[in-house]
Protein backbone atom coordinates (compact mmCIF):
# COMPACT_ATOMS: atom_id res chain seq x y z
CA UNK A 1 0.00 0.00 0.00
CA UNK A 2 1.30 3.47 -0.89
CA UNK A 3 2.48 5.66 1.92
CA UNK A 4 -0.41 8.03 2.62
CA UNK A 5 2.07 10.73 3.61
CA UNK A 6 3.62 10.77 0.14
CA UNK A 7 1.91 13.22 -2.20
CA UNK A 8 3.38 14.24 -5.57
CA UNK A 9 6.75 12.74 -4.66
CA UNK A 10 6.84 14.38 -1.22
CA UNK A 11 7.06 12.68 2.15
CA UNK A 12 5.65 14.64 5.02
CA UNK A 13 7.90 14.78 8.03
CA UNK A 14 5.68 14.04 10.99
CA UNK A 15 7.89 15.68 13.56
CA UNK A 16 8.45 19.05 11.91
CA UNK A 17 5.74 19.23 9.27
CA UNK A 18 8.38 20.18 6.68
CA UNK A 19 8.65 18.53 3.27
CA UNK A 20 11.49 16.17 2.38
CA UNK A 21 11.82 14.66 -1.08
CA UNK A 22 11.17 11.01 -1.73
CA UNK A 23 14.20 9.51 -3.50
CA UNK A 24 13.53 7.57 -6.68
CA UNK A 25 15.71 4.50 -7.40
CA UNK A 26 17.33 6.05 -10.49
CA UNK A 27 18.31 9.70 -10.29
CA UNK A 28 17.33 11.14 -6.93
CA UNK A 29 15.30 14.23 -6.44
CA UNK A 30 16.68 17.28 -4.75
CA UNK A 31 16.34 15.94 -1.24
CA UNK A 32 16.32 17.81 2.04
CA UNK A 33 13.88 20.19 0.35
CA UNK A 34 12.42 21.85 3.38
CA UNK A 35 11.01 25.18 4.23
CA UNK A 36 14.14 27.36 4.32
CA UNK A 37 13.07 28.93 7.59
CA UNK A 38 12.95 25.46 9.16
CA UNK A 39 16.18 24.07 7.68
CA UNK A 40 19.29 23.56 9.73
CA UNK A 41 22.60 24.98 8.58
CA UNK A 42 23.80 21.48 7.74
CA UNK A 43 20.80 20.62 5.55
CA UNK A 44 21.11 23.94 3.72
CA UNK A 45 24.79 23.26 3.09
CA UNK A 46 23.99 19.82 1.65
CA UNK A 47 21.27 21.21 -0.58
CA UNK A 48 23.60 23.90 -1.96
CA UNK A 49 26.23 21.25 -2.67
CA UNK A 50 23.68 19.14 -4.48
CA UNK A 51 22.54 22.08 -6.60
CA UNK A 52 26.15 22.79 -7.65
CA UNK A 53 26.62 19.10 -8.39
CA UNK A 54 23.66 19.17 -10.78
CA UNK A 55 24.94 22.33 -12.50
CA UNK A 56 28.37 20.75 -13.12
CA UNK A 57 26.99 17.38 -14.22
CA UNK A 58 24.53 18.84 -16.74
CA UNK A 59 27.26 21.14 -18.08
CA UNK A 60 29.64 18.19 -18.52
CA UNK A 61 26.88 16.15 -20.20
CA UNK A 62 26.29 18.96 -22.72
CA UNK A 63 30.05 19.19 -23.29
CA UNK A 64 30.16 15.47 -24.11
CA UNK A 65 27.11 15.52 -26.36
CA UNK A 66 27.98 18.66 -28.28
CA UNK A 67 31.66 18.00 -28.83
CA UNK A 68 30.39 15.02 -30.85
CA UNK A 69 27.62 16.97 -32.58
CA UNK A 70 29.72 20.03 -33.43
CA UNK A 71 32.67 17.91 -34.52
CA UNK A 72 30.50 16.10 -37.07
CA UNK A 73 28.32 19.05 -38.10
CA UNK A 74 31.38 21.00 -39.30
CA UNK A 75 32.28 18.08 -41.56
CA UNK A 76 28.88 17.68 -43.21
CA UNK A 77 29.70 19.63 -46.36
CA UNK A 78 33.03 17.80 -46.68
CA UNK A 79 32.01 14.25 -45.77
CA UNK A 80 28.62 13.93 -47.49
CA UNK A 81 28.94 15.84 -50.74
CA UNK A 82 27.02 13.42 -52.96
CA UNK A 83 23.95 15.35 -54.20
CA UNK A 84 24.59 17.87 -51.42
CA UNK A 85 23.43 15.34 -48.84
CA UNK A 86 25.28 16.92 -45.92
CA UNK A 87 24.09 20.52 -46.32
CA UNK A 88 20.55 19.62 -47.41
CA UNK A 89 20.10 17.44 -44.33
CA UNK A 90 21.43 20.31 -42.20
CA UNK A 91 18.68 22.43 -43.74
CA UNK A 92 16.11 19.76 -42.81
CA UNK A 93 17.46 19.76 -39.26
CA UNK A 94 16.85 23.48 -38.76
CA UNK A 95 13.48 23.28 -40.49
CA UNK A 96 12.36 20.69 -37.95
CA UNK A 97 13.78 22.88 -35.19
CA UNK A 98 11.57 25.81 -36.23
CA UNK A 99 8.45 23.67 -36.14
CA UNK A 100 9.31 21.98 -32.85
CA UNK A 101 9.98 25.24 -30.98
CA UNK A 102 6.28 26.02 -30.67
CA UNK A 103 4.87 22.82 -29.19
CA UNK A 104 7.40 20.01 -28.53
CA UNK A 105 9.19 21.55 -25.49
CA UNK A 106 6.05 22.16 -23.45
CA UNK A 107 4.53 18.79 -24.37
CA UNK A 108 7.61 16.73 -23.57
CA UNK A 109 8.66 18.58 -20.42
CA UNK A 110 5.12 18.49 -19.09
CA UNK A 111 4.91 14.74 -19.75
CA UNK A 112 8.29 13.46 -18.45
CA UNK A 113 9.82 16.41 -16.62
CA UNK A 114 12.91 18.57 -17.12
CA UNK A 115 15.53 16.01 -16.14
CA UNK A 116 14.28 13.15 -18.33
CA UNK A 117 13.78 15.45 -21.33
CA UNK A 118 17.56 15.96 -21.48
CA UNK A 119 18.73 12.32 -21.90
CA UNK A 120 15.79 11.49 -24.19
CA UNK A 121 16.76 14.41 -26.43
CA UNK A 122 20.40 13.27 -26.35
CA UNK A 123 19.22 9.95 -27.81
CA UNK A 124 18.10 11.78 -30.97
CA UNK A 125 21.61 13.17 -31.34
CA UNK A 126 23.11 9.70 -30.97
CA UNK A 127 20.89 8.40 -33.80
CA UNK A 128 22.12 11.25 -36.00
CA UNK A 129 25.74 10.43 -35.18
CA UNK A 130 25.18 6.78 -36.10
CA UNK A 131 23.56 7.82 -39.39
CA UNK A 132 26.79 9.67 -40.27
CA UNK A 133 28.56 6.32 -40.26
CA UNK A 134 26.20 5.02 -42.94
CA UNK A 135 25.38 8.18 -44.93
CA UNK A 136 22.35 7.52 -47.11
CA UNK A 137 19.29 9.66 -47.75
CA UNK A 138 17.21 7.05 -45.92
CA UNK A 139 19.35 7.34 -42.79
CA UNK A 140 20.59 10.93 -42.61
CA UNK A 141 17.34 12.70 -43.60
CA UNK A 142 15.14 11.11 -40.87
CA UNK A 143 17.96 11.43 -38.32
CA UNK A 144 18.34 15.14 -39.11
CA UNK A 145 14.61 15.72 -38.62
CA UNK A 146 14.76 13.85 -35.29
CA UNK A 147 17.64 16.03 -34.05
CA UNK A 148 15.69 19.13 -35.05
CA UNK A 149 12.71 17.92 -33.05
CA UNK A 150 14.93 17.07 -30.06
CA UNK A 151 16.93 20.31 -30.00
CA UNK A 152 14.12 22.62 -28.87
CA UNK A 153 13.00 20.58 -25.82
CA UNK A 154 16.64 19.89 -24.90
CA UNK A 155 17.58 23.55 -24.64
CA UNK A 156 14.27 24.54 -23.07
CA UNK A 157 14.68 21.88 -20.37
CA UNK A 158 18.28 22.93 -19.65
CA UNK A 159 17.42 26.63 -19.39
CA UNK A 160 14.36 26.00 -17.23
CA UNK A 161 16.25 23.57 -14.94
CA UNK A 162 19.04 26.09 -14.34
CA UNK A 163 16.59 28.94 -13.77
CA UNK A 164 14.51 26.98 -11.27
CA UNK A 165 17.37 25.65 -9.13
CA UNK A 166 19.10 29.03 -9.45
CA UNK A 167 16.09 30.69 -7.83
CA UNK A 168 16.10 28.01 -5.12
CA UNK A 169 19.83 28.55 -4.48
CA UNK A 170 19.24 32.31 -4.24
CA UNK A 171 16.71 31.72 -1.46
CA UNK A 172 19.13 29.46 0.38
CA UNK A 173 21.93 32.02 0.22
CA UNK A 174 19.78 35.14 0.37
CA UNK A 175 21.29 36.39 -2.92
CA UNK A 176 19.73 38.11 -5.92
CA UNK A 177 18.13 35.43 -8.13
CA UNK A 178 19.25 37.07 -11.39
CA UNK A 179 22.86 37.13 -10.22
CA UNK A 180 22.76 33.46 -9.25
CA UNK A 181 21.14 32.33 -12.51
CA UNK A 182 23.66 34.38 -14.51
CA UNK A 183 26.50 32.72 -12.58
CA UNK A 184 25.08 29.25 -13.25
CA UNK A 185 24.74 29.97 -16.98
CA UNK A 186 28.30 31.28 -16.98
CA UNK A 187 29.49 27.92 -15.65
CA UNK A 188 27.38 26.10 -18.23
CA UNK A 189 28.61 28.08 -21.24
CA UNK A 190 32.22 27.70 -20.13
CA UNK A 191 31.82 23.94 -20.58
CA UNK A 192 29.65 24.28 -23.68
CA UNK A 193 32.13 26.50 -25.53
CA UNK A 194 34.82 23.88 -24.90
CA UNK A 195 32.79 21.40 -26.95
CA UNK A 196 33.73 23.11 -30.21
CA UNK A 197 37.41 22.80 -29.34
CA UNK A 198 37.36 19.19 -28.10
CA UNK A 199 35.20 18.07 -31.02
CA UNK A 200 37.67 19.54 -33.47
CA UNK A 201 40.63 17.91 -31.68
CA UNK A 202 38.98 14.49 -31.90
CA UNK A 203 38.19 14.77 -35.62
CA UNK A 204 41.67 16.13 -36.40
CA UNK A 205 43.34 13.31 -34.45
CA UNK A 206 41.30 10.48 -35.98
CA UNK A 207 41.39 11.80 -39.56
CA UNK A 208 45.07 12.73 -39.48
CA UNK A 209 47.10 11.38 -42.39
CA UNK A 210 50.20 12.14 -44.37
CA UNK A 211 50.07 15.33 -46.46
CA UNK A 212 48.63 14.88 -49.93
CA UNK A 213 49.73 17.05 -52.84
CA UNK A 214 46.78 18.84 -54.43
CA UNK A 215 47.34 19.79 -58.05
CA UNK A 216 47.35 23.40 -59.18
CA UNK A 217 44.54 22.52 -61.54
CA UNK A 218 42.39 21.31 -58.66
CA UNK A 219 43.23 24.42 -56.58
CA UNK A 220 41.82 26.61 -59.34
CA UNK A 221 38.35 25.38 -58.38
CA UNK A 222 38.70 26.12 -54.65
CA UNK A 223 37.56 29.20 -52.73
CA UNK A 224 35.25 31.57 -54.61
CA UNK A 225 35.69 29.48 -57.77
CA UNK A 226 34.05 26.46 -56.17
CA UNK A 227 30.86 25.89 -58.12
CA UNK A 228 28.62 22.79 -58.21
CA UNK A 229 29.98 20.31 -60.75
CA UNK A 230 32.90 22.46 -61.96
CA UNK A 231 36.38 20.97 -61.98
CA UNK A 232 37.92 17.89 -60.45
CA UNK A 233 38.96 19.82 -57.38
CA UNK A 234 35.53 21.05 -56.47
CA UNK A 235 34.46 20.09 -52.99
CA UNK A 236 30.93 19.58 -54.29
CA UNK A 237 31.81 17.10 -57.02
CA UNK A 238 31.95 13.56 -55.72
CA UNK A 239 31.61 11.59 -52.54
CA UNK A 240 35.11 10.14 -52.85
CA UNK A 241 37.03 13.38 -52.62
CA UNK A 242 37.23 13.33 -48.84
CA UNK A 243 39.52 10.32 -49.12
CA UNK A 244 38.42 8.94 -45.75
CA UNK A 245 38.25 5.12 -45.55
CA UNK A 246 35.08 3.62 -44.09
CA UNK A 247 36.92 2.14 -41.09
CA UNK A 248 38.41 5.56 -40.22
CA UNK A 249 35.00 7.21 -40.54
CA UNK A 250 33.45 4.61 -38.26
CA UNK A 251 36.29 5.02 -35.75
CA UNK A 252 35.51 8.73 -35.50
CA UNK A 253 31.73 8.19 -35.37
CA UNK A 254 32.18 5.43 -32.78
CA UNK A 255 34.22 7.71 -30.51
CA UNK A 256 31.61 10.44 -30.79
CA UNK A 257 28.77 7.99 -30.05
CA UNK A 258 30.61 6.63 -27.01
CA UNK A 259 31.08 10.12 -25.59
CA UNK A 260 27.43 11.02 -26.28
CA UNK A 261 26.20 7.84 -24.59
CA UNK A 262 28.31 8.79 -21.54
CA UNK A 263 26.41 12.10 -21.48
CA UNK A 264 23.09 10.21 -21.41
CA UNK A 265 24.24 7.98 -18.53
CA UNK A 266 25.51 10.95 -16.52
CA UNK A 267 22.11 12.63 -16.59
CA UNK A 268 20.10 9.44 -15.97
CA UNK A 269 22.07 8.16 -12.99
CA UNK A 270 23.68 11.24 -11.42
CA UNK A 271 21.45 14.27 -12.04
CA UNK A 272 18.57 14.90 -9.63
CA UNK A 273 14.93 15.32 -10.53
CA UNK A 274 13.44 18.74 -9.97
CA UNK A 275 11.00 18.94 -7.05
CA UNK A 276 7.43 19.02 -8.33
CA UNK A 277 6.65 22.03 -6.17
CA UNK A 278 9.40 23.95 -7.95
CA UNK A 279 8.40 22.72 -11.43
CA UNK A 280 4.62 22.20 -11.44
CA UNK A 281 2.98 20.77 -14.53
CA UNK A 282 0.94 22.99 -16.80
CA UNK A 283 -2.79 22.50 -16.38
CA UNK A 284 -3.90 24.16 -19.62
CA UNK A 285 -1.12 22.92 -21.90
CA UNK A 286 -3.00 23.39 -25.17
CA UNK A 287 -3.88 26.93 -24.22
CA UNK A 288 -0.26 27.66 -23.28
CA UNK A 289 1.02 26.41 -26.65
CA UNK A 290 -1.59 28.37 -28.62
CA UNK A 291 -0.82 31.45 -26.54
CA UNK A 292 2.89 31.14 -27.37
CA UNK A 293 2.23 30.82 -31.12
CA UNK A 294 -0.09 33.83 -31.10
CA UNK A 295 2.35 35.88 -28.99
CA UNK A 296 5.17 35.11 -31.45
CA UNK A 297 2.98 36.22 -34.37
CA UNK A 298 1.79 39.33 -32.53
CA UNK A 299 5.38 40.32 -31.76
CA UNK A 300 5.91 40.83 -35.50
CA UNK A 301 3.63 43.87 -35.36
CA UNK A 302 6.51 45.81 -33.79
CA UNK A 303 8.52 47.69 -36.40
CA UNK A 304 11.68 47.07 -34.39
CA UNK A 305 11.16 43.31 -34.70
CA UNK A 306 10.71 43.61 -38.45
CA UNK A 307 13.79 45.82 -38.79
CA UNK A 308 15.91 43.28 -36.87
CA UNK A 309 14.98 40.35 -39.14
CA UNK A 310 17.97 40.81 -41.55
CA UNK A 311 20.45 40.94 -38.66
CA UNK A 312 18.84 37.93 -37.00
CA UNK A 313 18.90 35.94 -40.23
CA UNK A 314 22.52 36.97 -40.77
CA UNK A 315 23.37 35.22 -37.51
CA UNK A 316 22.11 31.99 -39.09
CA UNK A 317 23.73 32.73 -42.46
CA UNK A 318 27.20 33.32 -41.03
CA UNK A 319 27.16 30.16 -38.89
CA UNK A 320 25.94 28.05 -41.80
CA UNK A 321 28.54 29.60 -44.12
CA UNK A 322 31.31 28.76 -41.69
CA UNK A 323 30.17 25.15 -41.28
CA UNK A 324 29.46 24.60 -45.00
CA UNK A 325 31.33 26.97 -47.31
CA UNK A 326 34.47 27.79 -45.33
CA UNK A 327 35.19 24.22 -44.27
CA UNK A 328 34.44 22.73 -47.71
CA UNK A 329 35.43 25.32 -50.34
CA UNK A 330 38.47 26.71 -48.54
CA UNK A 331 39.78 24.12 -46.06
CA UNK A 332 38.87 20.71 -47.48
CA UNK A 333 39.44 21.76 -51.08
CA UNK A 334 42.94 23.15 -50.46
CA UNK A 335 44.48 21.15 -47.59
CA UNK A 336 42.14 18.15 -47.15
CA UNK A 337 39.22 17.17 -44.93
CA UNK A 338 41.60 15.74 -42.31
CA UNK A 339 42.70 19.32 -41.51
CA UNK A 340 39.20 20.72 -40.91
CA UNK A 341 39.39 19.86 -37.20
CA UNK A 342 42.73 21.62 -36.76
CA UNK A 343 41.67 24.76 -38.64
CA UNK A 344 38.48 25.10 -36.61
CA UNK A 345 40.29 25.02 -33.23
CA UNK A 346 41.14 28.77 -33.32
CA UNK A 347 37.46 29.45 -34.00
CA UNK A 348 36.43 27.63 -30.82
CA UNK A 349 39.12 29.22 -28.63
CA UNK A 350 38.50 32.81 -29.76
CA UNK A 351 34.72 32.31 -29.76
CA UNK A 352 34.80 31.16 -26.13
CA UNK A 353 36.95 34.12 -25.04
CA UNK A 354 34.85 36.72 -26.88
CA UNK A 355 31.58 35.21 -25.64
CA UNK A 356 32.92 35.54 -22.10
CA UNK A 357 34.42 39.03 -22.46
CA UNK A 358 32.06 40.91 -24.80
CA UNK A 359 29.30 41.32 -22.22
CA UNK A 360 31.77 42.67 -19.68
CA UNK A 361 33.34 45.07 -22.18
CA UNK A 362 29.88 46.27 -23.26
CA UNK A 363 29.30 47.51 -19.69
CA UNK A 364 31.93 50.17 -20.29
CA UNK A 365 31.66 50.84 -24.02
CA UNK A 366 28.00 50.12 -24.75
CA UNK A 367 26.74 47.81 -27.50
CA UNK A 368 27.43 50.02 -30.53
CA UNK A 369 31.28 49.75 -30.54
CA UNK A 370 30.99 45.97 -30.10
CA UNK A 371 28.60 45.65 -33.07
CA UNK A 372 30.80 47.93 -35.20
CA UNK A 373 33.85 45.78 -34.40
CA UNK A 374 31.93 42.66 -35.46
CA UNK A 375 30.82 44.37 -38.68
CA UNK A 376 34.33 45.53 -39.62
CA UNK A 377 35.97 42.16 -38.94
CA UNK A 378 33.24 40.21 -40.77
CA UNK A 379 33.50 42.54 -43.75
CA UNK A 380 37.27 42.02 -43.76
CA UNK A 381 36.76 38.23 -43.72
CA UNK A 382 34.34 38.35 -46.65
CA UNK A 383 36.57 40.64 -48.71
CA UNK A 384 39.51 38.29 -48.06
CA UNK A 385 37.47 35.26 -49.09
CA UNK A 386 36.49 37.00 -52.32
CA UNK A 387 40.06 37.92 -53.34
CA UNK A 388 42.34 35.30 -51.77
CA UNK A 389 42.82 31.94 -53.46
CA UNK A 390 43.40 29.05 -51.03
CA UNK A 391 46.90 27.60 -51.25
CA UNK A 392 48.53 24.85 -49.16
CA UNK A 393 51.63 27.05 -48.83
CA UNK A 394 49.49 29.75 -47.19
CA UNK A 395 47.43 27.49 -44.94
CA UNK A 396 48.15 29.81 -41.99
CA UNK A 397 45.67 32.26 -43.54
CA UNK A 398 42.90 29.70 -42.94
CA UNK A 399 43.77 29.56 -39.23
CA UNK A 400 43.72 33.37 -39.00
CA UNK A 401 40.37 33.56 -40.80
CA UNK A 402 38.92 30.88 -38.49
CA UNK A 403 40.03 32.88 -35.43
CA UNK A 404 38.54 36.08 -36.87
CA UNK A 405 35.28 34.23 -37.57
CA UNK A 406 35.24 33.01 -33.98
CA UNK A 407 35.66 36.62 -32.85
CA UNK A 408 32.64 37.88 -34.80
CA UNK A 409 30.45 34.87 -34.04
CA UNK A 410 31.09 35.41 -30.32
CA UNK A 411 29.85 38.98 -30.74
CA UNK A 412 26.73 38.10 -32.74
CA UNK A 413 25.63 35.27 -30.43
CA UNK A 414 25.94 37.30 -27.24
CA UNK A 415 25.09 40.82 -28.32
CA UNK A 416 22.07 40.07 -30.52
CA UNK A 417 20.60 38.17 -27.58
CA UNK A 418 21.27 41.16 -25.35
CA UNK A 419 19.77 43.53 -27.93
CA UNK A 420 16.55 41.50 -28.04
CA UNK A 421 16.38 41.37 -24.26
CA UNK A 422 16.66 45.16 -23.94
CA UNK A 423 14.46 46.06 -26.92
CA UNK A 424 11.60 43.69 -26.08
CA UNK A 425 11.83 43.55 -22.29
CA UNK A 426 8.04 43.44 -21.93
CA UNK A 427 7.59 40.60 -24.45
CA UNK A 428 10.83 38.70 -24.02
CA UNK A 429 9.44 35.18 -24.51
CA UNK A 430 7.71 36.00 -27.80
CA UNK A 431 10.68 38.09 -28.96
CA UNK A 432 13.20 35.31 -28.34
CA UNK A 433 10.89 32.86 -30.06
CA UNK A 434 11.06 35.14 -33.12
CA UNK A 435 14.82 35.41 -32.71
CA UNK A 436 15.30 31.63 -32.84
CA UNK A 437 12.80 31.29 -35.69
CA UNK A 438 14.43 33.88 -37.97
CA UNK A 439 17.93 32.71 -37.11
CA UNK A 440 16.86 29.18 -38.03
CA UNK A 441 15.48 30.48 -41.33
CA UNK A 442 18.97 31.84 -42.00
CA UNK A 443 20.41 28.36 -41.43
CA UNK A 444 17.74 26.71 -43.58
CA UNK A 445 18.18 29.02 -46.57
CA UNK A 446 21.99 29.01 -46.45
CA UNK A 447 22.20 25.22 -46.28
CA UNK A 448 19.45 24.80 -48.90
CA UNK A 449 21.16 26.83 -51.62
CA UNK A 450 24.66 25.59 -50.75
CA UNK A 451 24.77 22.95 -53.50
CA UNK A 452 23.10 25.05 -56.19
CA UNK A 453 25.14 28.27 -56.46
CA UNK A 454 28.83 29.17 -56.52
CA UNK A 455 30.74 30.17 -53.40
CA UNK A 456 31.25 33.69 -54.76
CA UNK A 457 27.46 34.21 -54.93
CA UNK A 458 27.08 32.90 -51.38
CA UNK A 459 29.61 35.44 -50.11
CA UNK A 460 27.77 38.27 -51.92
CA UNK A 461 24.53 37.17 -50.22
CA UNK A 462 26.32 37.01 -46.86
CA UNK A 463 27.71 40.53 -47.30
CA UNK A 464 24.31 41.89 -48.37
CA UNK A 465 22.64 40.52 -45.21
CA UNK A 466 25.51 41.84 -43.07
CA UNK A 467 25.11 45.38 -44.42
CA UNK A 468 21.30 45.29 -44.28
CA UNK A 469 21.44 43.83 -40.78
CA UNK A 470 23.81 46.53 -39.50
CA UNK A 471 21.68 49.26 -41.06
CA UNK A 472 18.65 47.85 -39.26
CA UNK A 473 20.66 47.60 -36.04
CA UNK A 474 21.54 51.30 -36.11
CA UNK A 475 17.89 52.18 -36.75
CA UNK A 476 16.76 50.10 -33.76
CA UNK A 477 19.43 51.64 -31.52
CA UNK A 478 18.25 55.09 -32.63
CA UNK A 479 14.63 54.16 -31.89
CA UNK A 480 15.64 52.76 -28.50
CA UNK A 481 17.51 55.95 -27.61
CA UNK A 482 14.66 58.11 -28.94
CA UNK A 483 12.24 56.09 -26.85
CA UNK A 484 14.36 56.62 -23.76
CA UNK A 485 14.63 60.32 -24.55
CA UNK A 486 10.87 60.55 -24.98
CA UNK A 487 10.35 58.69 -21.72
CA UNK A 488 12.82 61.05 -20.04
CA UNK A 489 11.07 64.11 -21.47
CA UNK A 490 7.73 62.74 -20.37
CA UNK A 491 9.14 62.01 -16.95
CA UNK A 492 10.58 65.52 -16.69
CA UNK A 493 7.28 66.97 -17.89
CA UNK A 494 5.39 64.97 -15.28
CA UNK A 495 7.90 66.04 -12.64
CA UNK A 496 7.52 69.66 -13.69
CA UNK A 497 3.75 69.39 -13.64
CA UNK A 498 3.85 67.76 -10.24
CA UNK A 499 6.22 70.44 -8.99
CA UNK A 500 3.97 73.14 -10.42
CA UNK A 501 0.95 71.52 -8.86
CA UNK A 502 2.74 71.21 -5.55
CA UNK A 503 3.97 74.82 -5.88
CA UNK A 504 0.47 76.11 -6.48
CA UNK A 505 -0.73 74.06 -3.59
CA UNK A 506 2.01 75.45 -1.37
CA UNK A 507 1.24 79.02 -2.50
CA UNK A 508 -2.42 78.47 -1.77
CA UNK A 509 -1.54 77.14 1.67
CA UNK A 510 0.83 80.08 2.24
CA UNK A 511 -1.88 82.55 1.23
CA UNK A 512 -4.34 80.85 3.53
CA UNK A 513 -1.80 80.97 6.33
CA UNK A 514 -1.05 84.62 5.59
CA UNK A 515 -4.74 85.53 5.57
CA UNK A 516 -5.27 83.60 8.77
CA UNK A 517 -2.33 85.41 10.33
CA UNK A 518 -3.82 88.79 9.36
CA UNK A 519 -7.17 87.68 10.72
CA UNK A 520 -5.54 86.47 13.92
CA UNK A 521 -3.59 89.75 14.22
CA UNK A 522 -6.80 91.70 13.82
CA UNK A 523 -8.32 89.63 16.55
CA UNK A 524 -5.23 90.16 18.69
CA UNK A 525 -5.35 93.95 18.15
CA UNK A 526 -9.05 94.08 18.87
CA UNK A 527 -8.58 91.97 21.96
CA UNK A 528 -5.74 94.19 23.09
CA UNK A 529 -7.82 97.33 22.57
CA UNK A 530 -10.68 95.85 24.52
CA UNK A 531 -8.36 94.76 27.32
CA UNK A 532 -6.85 98.26 27.51
CA UNK A 533 -10.31 99.84 27.60
CA UNK A 534 -11.24 97.64 30.49
CA UNK A 535 -8.47 98.98 32.65
* SSE run: EEEHHHHHHHHHHHHHHH
Helix fraction by DSSP (H/I, runs of at least 4)? over 70%
Report the principal-axis shape: globular
The CATH topology of the largest domain turns out to be Growth Hormone, Chain: A
Structure keywords:
2 domains; Growth Hormone, Chain: A; 1% strand; mainly alpha; 535 residues; 3-stranded antiparallel beta sheet; disordered C terminus
What features would you describe in this structure?
With 535 residues, the chain is mainly α. The chain has 2 domains: 1-39, no CATH class; 40-486, MFS general substrate transporter like domains (Growth Hormone, Chain: A, Up-down Bundle). The protein contains 15 helices and 3 strands. Strands 1-2-3 form a 3-stranded antiparallel β-sheet, with no helix packed on it. A hairpin with a 2-residue loop joins strand 1 (6-7) and strand 2. Helix 10 (309-335) packs parallel to helix 14 (428-449), helix 10 runs antiparallel to helix 15 and helix 12 (367-387) runs antiparallel to helix 13. It starts with 5 loop residues before the first strand and ends with a helix. 40% of the residues are buried.
Give a brief outline of the structure:
A three-stranded antiparallel sheet has the order 1-2-3, with no helix packed on it.
Helix and strand topology:
Layout: E1 6-7, E2 10-12, E3 19-21, H1 41-73, H2 76-79, H3 85-133, H4 137-173, H5 177-207, H6 216-219, H7 246-270, H8 285-299, H9 303-307, H10 309-335, H11 340-365, H12 367-387, H13 396-423, H14 428-449, H15 455-534
Antiparallel strand pairs: 1-2, 2-3
Helix pairs in contact: 1-3, 1-4, 1-5, 1-7, 3-4, 3-7, 3-8, 3-14, 4-5, 5-7, 5-11, 8-14, 10-13, 10-14, 10-15, 11-12, 11-13, 12-13, 12-15
Amino acid sequence: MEDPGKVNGLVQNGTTGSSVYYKSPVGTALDVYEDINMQSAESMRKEKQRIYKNIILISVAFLFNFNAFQGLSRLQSSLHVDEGMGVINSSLLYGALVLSCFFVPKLLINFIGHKWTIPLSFCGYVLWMAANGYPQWGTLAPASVIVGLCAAPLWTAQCAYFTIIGARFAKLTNEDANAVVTRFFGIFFFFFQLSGITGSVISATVLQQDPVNISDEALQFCGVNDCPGDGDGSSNDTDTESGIPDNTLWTMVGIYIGIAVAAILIVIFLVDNLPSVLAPKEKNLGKEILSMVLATAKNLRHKKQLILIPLTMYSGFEQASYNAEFTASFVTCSIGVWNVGLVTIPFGVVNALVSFMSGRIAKYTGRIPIFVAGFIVDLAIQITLMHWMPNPDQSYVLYILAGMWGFTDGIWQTQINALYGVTFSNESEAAFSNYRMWESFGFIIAFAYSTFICTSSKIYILTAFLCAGMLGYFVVEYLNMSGKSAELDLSEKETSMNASYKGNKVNKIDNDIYENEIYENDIYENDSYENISKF
